[in-house]
Amino acid sequence: MEHIRTTKVEQVKLLDRFSTSNKSLTGTLYLTATHLLFIDSHQKETWILHHHIALVEKLALTTSGCPLVIQCKNFRIVHFIVPRERDCHDIYNSLLQLSKQAKYEDLYAFSYNPKQNDSERLRGWQLVDLTEEYKRMGLPNSNWQLSDANRDYKICETYPRELYVPRIASKPIIVGSSKFRSKGRFPVLSYYHQNKEAAICRCSQPLSGFSARCLEDEHLLQAISKANPANRYMYVMDTRPRHRMQSWWATQKDIGRIILNAMANRAAGKGYENEDNYSNIRFQFVGIENIHVMRSSLQKLLEVSGSRGLSVSDFYSGLEGAGWLRHIKAVTDAAIFLAKAIMVENASVLVHCSDGWDRTSQVCSLGSLLLDPYYRTIRGFMVLIEKDWISFGHKYSDRCGHLDGDPKEVSPVFTQFLECVWHLTEQFPQAFEFNEAFLLQIHEHIHSCQFGNFIGNCQKEREELKLKEKTYSLWPFLLHDQKKYFNPLYSSTSQKLAVLEPNTVSFNFKFWRNMYHQFDRTLHPRQSVFNIIMNMNEQNKQLQKDVKDLESQIKQHKNKQTDGVLTKELLNSVRPESPALKTSLCLKEQTLLPVKDALRTVEGSSPADNRYSEYADEFSKAEPAVVSSEYGVARMTC
Amino acid sequence: MEFSELIRTGQAQAELLRGPEMPPLRGTLCVTGHHLLLSPGPQATPDLWLLLLRSVDSIEKRVAGDAGTITLRCKDLRVLQLDIEGVEATLDIARSIEALSSLESVITSFPFFYRPKGLRLGESWHFHPPERYYKRVARETRAWRLSEANEDFSLCPSYPRAVIVPRTVDDDALARSARFRQGGRFPVLSYYHAPSGTVLLRSSQPLTGPQKRRCAEDEELLQAVLAGARPGARGFIVDTRSAQAAKQARMTGGGTEAKSAYPGWKRLHRPLERGRPLQESFVHLVEACGDLEQSMDRWLSRLDGCHWLSHVKAALSTACLAAQGMEWEGACILVHGAEGTDSTLLVTSLAQLILDPLSRTMAGFQELIEREWIQAGHPFQLRCAHSAFSHTRPKHEAPIFLLFLDCVWQLGRQFPLSLEFGEGMLLALFDHSYASPFGTFLCNSEKERCLCEVRTRTHSLWSGLNQPKEQRKLRNPLYAPNPLAIWPSVEPQSLRLWQGLFLRWTHPPEPSEVAWEKVWQIATDQEKTEGSQPTDSASEPQP
Fold first, then answer.
1. Cα separation of A252 and A255, whole Å?
2. What's the half-sphere exposure (Cβ side, CA atoms, 13 Å) at B119?
């Protein structure tokens, strides 16, 4: 690679991020085409993917060398000290180049080769099939149909080719509505609830500066409402905070006469009493802030949690100041409103924000997750992300900053979604087939650019990049490792957990340590409950299988032999002395036990790791002056 | 019985509301000497609802029309509402509850009348005498002896009859040292750490006073401690007050060990909150936890403002410091604050949990509480007279023991496989320390317990808890003995609010309870299929 000037630097120090006494490990730093690698004196390796690097900083030269701080998108922060400034400068410059690519084709995914042939690759890409998913929801049916209007991305470039719309909405209506909506993102179906016959639909905001009515858009909304025979009204959910709406009021009233009066009333502050007259559409505002507020909120959160010698008080006031948990609650509350509208009122809901690819994706996907247990399985969660995020054009490459682009486009919208899901898994430990590691792994890969799924900003762009031919899909790799991601407490049959009704009282929202301090080993519990339960579960299954096997062996013997021989044979096969049985059981024990022991050990629990050394510095410190003067006084008085 | 004078109304019709998750209960309400009873009639389930009056922390009455409402706030942080027919009945019942719940007399309290089926009086009281711990120490070292100098509680009224002291120090020296320490609490052995051969001691502050008095026997005692440990051992005195506060204590007769008088010993100051500020912290936290409507910002600011988690962090760090001194520096540690009955015990007991695998077993933990809290003279009756809801001005109340339980809970969260007991055990201890049918937490010291004949006339909590039927609630199904020290992280990101306690009633964690049940099921399945013995009988600590 032309950017790499130095491939190896020795005697580099890796500082402990939270230590106030500059504890460090010494080792060698390597720079490869894709990764930065640090191998310390214990041969422990730290790999950092170039794409994960969010920020590289070279700090002022110190006596021990030149400090280099690397902040990663997966919230890893490493602090190196390179002995020679020239080496540091070279690495710094190389990383600057390597971490920000100008072209999609330079991303890791295009060179990553997991040694699969083309048909395996294709099968991997076909693992999540959205056509199948709509079929699973029961579509098409008498009210909803597949529209071919966007087959060539002619109406909306950021939507997928296949879109479901009300059967009574004709193509001219769709085209007309799309012209009235920002980026052509007209109202389409996101999720269909078969039992309630209600739908979650999504779109973007009506175009500002549009002065006339848009009859087609009006018709499309009516059509969505009519497509739900169970309820004569529907909700339009605007996910933006009301105070930011002022400029938008003027345009919203153009939706039509029906809405006009209601909106004019609201704009004039007259309240909602006239809504009953226009009872087929109800407006709901939920205050989710925009991508810029979210970006700076996370920034503040990380600043707080990353500071050294943090006191409990600073932590909580920082948590409050960052507002991050408030935003997580707002997103969850919006999803709950959506789910309730469908479950309790049988009403269809149309969700939108500004462009309909950030907050709208959050609310639609989280709402579906509450309603449909399928999305809480490992496979279902992949489908949900493919549907509401990837296919509907959440701008992954812009939001994750895959390429060197506008930093104002970067925002942790998807991270926020994962955090909302994590909070649900905390509240309903039995409702999800997957565990926290699954969420963390997905988060890792939206930034890694190792797989093609999250590259690009919409389906059209992905097709142009020929991602399915040139890169691999993440999902088969996650499924292959799914053992790691199973939640041992998952109860798939529980009726109580069919629809989740989370409680969003403030106490329920906590700082997600395992996400934001994923790589700060010393902050985590030292023993994993999940692993141990997982293991117990597996052992139970294995033992039960053994019991069954033995029973069936006994049965076989019974069928074959006469009674006299049988008892002898039976005793032989059951008796522990039986050599065959003994070895088989022993083998199993041997394979299981070491793992168990490894899990039980208290890894990394030592006072040195926990930095009490700071408290205990005084164990080796010289006596303070006050005490020695006291010594003199004490002598005199005695 | 004088109770009858305090009961103004025998019974009334009432409806009981027990929070949003539980259905209301209607029936006949009745006040007895120790209980509030509600009988919904024979068909109903349960057919009787019972509340120990002692567990009522505050009572509020309102009357409207010909009915009244009584709100009972309990010491276990539960809030109950009683809707009662009749204004007179309401007022009478409220007055009766008020009078009966605040009775001061120990020997008329419920534990003296409680006679449950299946338990024998006097059982389990003999479980944890000082002799027993001494035997454990004596197996490892000859440097210590069990002294019965305090047989008649004359040396120190808040110590047990027998204490463990350096072998080379005789009882006369102990008596002199006791006179030099506040409340007579001379330095005694709290824990012997066999792997490093070092010891943890506790005492109260020395009475140096403004003249900086000294006491030769006290100095000898601490010298003997170092001499008994490995040669060249150093000692650290962990003072749980700030250097400033320790200095000020001289004005009132207290003080700290002067460096010159105790060669080999070095003082460290680790201020821990106690007394009224700690009680206020508890009250503010409970207030914040009672508000279900508050915004995220308000909640976080109240959580910050009450400082409870800061106290948790401080207590854990100080205990870690003491433990680290013993395990890594090979030093002897003496812990004291002022009286040596509160934050001192917090530090010594937590340090043992960190270092000693035996204290993390069910039996070992009970022994630890018995030895380091009850027999060591933590004044439970004074500290736990009222909980967080009381309107009366706190005098001696302070949730030191609760703070200890919270710290243990944090340890359990960070080392989920290393404690044999679960959250249920900690909750039970909290409940019983504030109001209990058992005698274990009665009185302020062994001396008082002797005078009241607590050991012979009440049941021990341990015999109640060690019944097989209680085990599923109290034990940790994932426990696996862990021979190592457990060093917790004390960073704010690693500490959490103990929801299971502070939000137990406002916010019942039903789904997680179901999940816990599932964990139990998996764990017991494992035991069954492996054919090993289920461990539901209380196991004694290994000899």
1. 6
2. 23
Residue of B nearest to A620 (CA): B329
Q: DSSP secondary-structure letter at B392?
A: S
Which amino acid makes up residue B43? Q
pLDDT tens, residue by residue, B474-508: 999 888 888 888 999 899 999 999 988 998 887 66
User: Is the predicted pLDDT of residue B318 greater than 80, yes or no?
Assistant: yes
Among the partner residues A305, A602, A618, nearest to B415 by beta-carbon distance: A602
Task: Identify how many contiguous H helices and E strands chain A contains and give both numbers.
Answer: 24, 14
Contact check, Cβ <8 Å, A319/B211? no
Q: Is A411 annotated as a binding residue?
A: no
* A353 tagged catalytic: yes
- Closest alpha carbon within chain A to B499: A507
Q: Which of A16, A331, A499, A507 to mutate to test the interface with B (most CBs of B within 10 A)?
A: A507
State the complex-level ipTM: 0.89
Which stretches of chain A drop beneath a pLDDT of 70?
1-2, 19-22, 208-213, 243-279, 561-638
Q: Residues near A91 by Cβ (< 8 Å), separated by ≥ 6? A: A6, A9, A29, A31, A68, A82
Q: Tell me if residue B329 falls in helix, strand or coil.
A: coil
Note whether A533 contacts B258, CB cutoff 8 Å: no
Average pLDDT of chain B is 87
What sign does the dihedral A163-A167-A170-A174 (CA atoms) show?
A: negative
pLDDT of residue A16: 77
Interval B333-349: pLDDT, tens: 999 999 999 999 999 99
Look up residue A357 and give its two tokens. 């690819």
What single-letter amino acid sits at A436? E
Compute how many other C-beta atoms are within 10 angstroms of the C-beta atom of residue A347. 22
Name every chain B residue with its beta carbon within 8 A of the beta carbon of A606.
487
End-to-end CA distance of chain B: 47
Beta bridge partners of A165: A145
Helix (H) or strand (E) holding B267: strand B265-269
With residue A597 as reference, give the H or E element that holds it: helix A579-600
Q: Quick one: CA torsion of A8, A11, A16, A22, rounded to 10 degrees?
A: -150
CA-CA-CA-CA torsion sign (A224, A227, A230, A231): positive
Find the CB nearest B324 among A544, A616, A633.
A616
Look up the pTM and report it. 0.87
pLDDT (tens digit, 9 = 90+) per residue, B435-478?
A: 999 989 999 999 999 898 888 888 999 988 988 888 888 999 88
**Spatial distance between the Cα atoms of B326 and B218, rounded to a whole number of angstroms:** 22
Catalytic residue among A201, A214, A353, A400: A353
Residue A434 DSSP code: B
Tens digits of residue pLDDT in B126-164: 667 888 899 999 998 889 999 999 999 999 999 999 999
Contacts A315 to B, Cβ<8 Å = 492-493
Whether B2 shows a pLDDT value over 80: the answer reads no
Are B297 and A326 an interchain contact pair (Cβ–Cβ within 8 Å)?
yes
List the single residue in B484, B503, B511 with the smallest CB-CB distance to A602: B484
Q: Which residue in B294, B309, B522 is closest to A536 by CB distance?
A: B522
Rounded to a whole number of angstroms, the distance between the first and last alpha carbons of chain A is: 78
> pLDDT digit string (tens) for B365-391?
999 999 999 999 999 999 998 898 887
Please check whether residue B50 is in contact with residue B67, taking contact to mean a CB–CB distance below 8 angstroms: no
- Chain B residue closest to A330 (CA)? B296
| CB within 8 Å of B480: residues ≥ 6 apart | A532, A600, B417, B418
The alpha carbon of residue B202 is apart from the nearest alpha carbon of chain A, in Å, by 19
